[in-house]
Amino acid sequence: RLFSRWTPGTFTREYLCDLVEIAHVSLKILEENTKRGIQFVKEKKAGGHSNVSPRIAKMKAIAADFDVKVYVLRKIVSNSMITMYGHLMSQYKINATVVNH
């Protein structure tokens, strides 16, 4: 919702940077969670993790099945998101290094 409400000239550049950073960090967390879930499932099939509670095992199995790319394409990427990134990158020369990474 935050992304769809952003419009150029309405919010500050700092706000835009914060939105982009939120998106970036959120995607990194989703990717890492999926990788750890896949690793857990593989280790469990090999006979490891017998002392893990069934609830945790179920959550990790669900994380392993989560497709980050499909989620991003269906739920996050939109015309407004592309416009946001384009607006921010148009100011590449004056952005802080951390913004341009």
Topology:
Elements: H1 2-5, H2 13-45, H3 54-65, H4 68-76, H5 79-89, H6 97-100
Helix pairs in contact: 2-3
Can you tell me about this structure?
- Helix content is 72%, strand content 0%.
- By secondary structure, the chain is mainly α.
- The chain is elongated and about 55 Å long.
- The two termini are 24 Å apart.
- The mean pLDDT is 78.
Low-confidence runs of at least 5 consecutive residues: none
Number of helices: 6
Percent in helix? over 70%
DSSP E strands, number: 0
What oligomerization state is this entry in? single chain
Question: What share of residues are in beta strands?
Answer: under 5%
Class based on secondary structure composition and strand pairing: mainly alpha
Give a brief description:
This protein is mainly alpha-helical. It contains 6 helices and no strands.
Key descriptive features of the protein:
101 residues, 6 helices, mainly alpha
